[in-house]
Amino acid sequence: MKTYLLRLNLYGSLLVGGQVSSLLVDTATARYTSGVPYIPASAVKGSLRIEFERLARHVYPDVCSPDTSSGCQGKKCLACSVFGSPCNEGKLRFYDAVLDETLQPLFQKRADEARSFQSTGRGYSVRTGVTISRKRKVAEDKLLYDAEVLIPFLPACGFLTRVDAREALTEDEEKFFRAAIKTLRGIGRSKSRGLGRIEAVIEEEKEFDLPAAPGSGRFEQAACLHLTLVPRENILVGGLKTQNNFLDGQDYITGANVRGAVAAGFAASLPGKWEDGDFRQAFLSEPALFSDFYPAAAGHNSLPVPFSARTCKAFPGLRKGEGSHGTRDILIAASLVKLLRQCGVTVVLEDSCHCGMALRGISGYYCTGGSDAKTGPGSILSTKTAINRKRWQSAEGKLYTLQLMNAGQDYDEVVRLCFTGTVTGATPALNKYLESLEGKELFIGGARSRGFGRVQVQVTPFDAALCPSDIKVAKERFSSIIRNCLQDMGIDSLRGYKLADLAFFSLTLQSDLLLPPGDLKEELLRELSFKLGVSDLYLEKAIVRTGFRGGYNSAIAIRKELAPVIRAGSAFVFSVPLGALSDEVYVSAVDLERNGLGCQREEGFGRVVFCDSFHIDRINQK
Fold this sequence. Notes:
Alpha-Beta Plaits, Immunoglobulin-like, six-stranded antiparallel sheet
């Protein structure tokens, strides 16, 4: 395959939409938080596509007719084959155009360690305009607007970008693409009014191998692989579309997104592509299980903070100190309150901090492995507009906003967040492919051809080292706390069982749980009883949130149906007679922690942990 390295020389002021908002002006040109301007990949792609279609239509009249507002829906025309359409991914992948490194010091300067650069305040100017009444041919009342543009203070500001041809272009496609680059004269907004005047040239072309080379098989026998995804671009992992013009985004990468990206690359590396036997074995007959990928600091894993966690309303924080009163977990306390009330003892749950303020829930992620630092990616909004193909201008009423995960391009490498997760049960062929991804790139989420979703992959073998005795010890510790508290209150039996003959354990969701249709409580008890081989389970307490998960299947270009889920972070307390707990139950519990519970576990659903130490260690605020 081929990569084109492009240089865009700017000869006028620039106004191009991006991840920037301002309280002082109505619109501002795209820039990083450090102040360095850039041209979004979507703007580069859109400008080149307009030129491509204009030139190609002289030879191919059916190229995306102006009457077709959203591209080809069936058979792809020449332009949709190269640039893509809502139903098809194009052959070209575009990247943001970044300002030449020699010019960046004019816009940014070194700051503190947490943020590597900050803006110098130079390089931008405010232009004032007024909307014209098309009927009266005069200025409209109260429609004055301001736009902050990049100043053309240098003879030519150079922006560098690249375009990857992930499939070979035909002779005609190559010819019209090169012609579009050569004839491109404007980019961004208000081109007809003198803004965005540029010249585009191809500086270099080079070949690259799209499929990763087969690995050596060093991890072939690994039961589990640990993947770290280091973002190089902002990531769009869409949530539920609550409004027509706004797409809410997730703050983590779902297992389905990673699975889809790996599947596409794995299929491309095989002779038979999607129909190859190794592919069908790895993703259909013996599907590998991909976990969700949560944001973590370098060198750590992270998990969602359980919904049972509470922090001080006035001084919130996960760990006590530095202006925070810390966090306590109420799962055990809430379970005891419910059990005591069932036994006729009137008690209430203490929900106030030691300072007297009320406690509230805390969300996000916490690092494991000796660090309690709360982590989470920052979000950033990107506003786009559709193009009217008849007038070649912004389409009215087609403004939409995307919520992205911030890759932190302005942060030093050591303080950037990454995303960590696991892949279990991979076939030897898939293991070799995953091993070969070390140091390579994957493209995750939506709008991948428009400069979003590029991550670098790090792969290591991982063994959770789970054993039945660990779960047994954790269960006994959890049970003893509840039994001792009940006995101190004079309770010696519960629902016809002697208290000494009951065991208690918690189940905490590390990812969303998708159950078969029906009553969620009944389905959870039925599924858990079947997996553990225990029939007399009783749900004592639940602190849960429910929601819906959807998605998009790129392979067959259809949306997934919305499915009701129990959210990650939900926690449950169960009781079971001690006589029902054999050694086989603990073996099944180990398998349940490793492989998950419920449906679609290959996409990250249903990851659980028994008797999570988070609930026990934080009975008191710390």
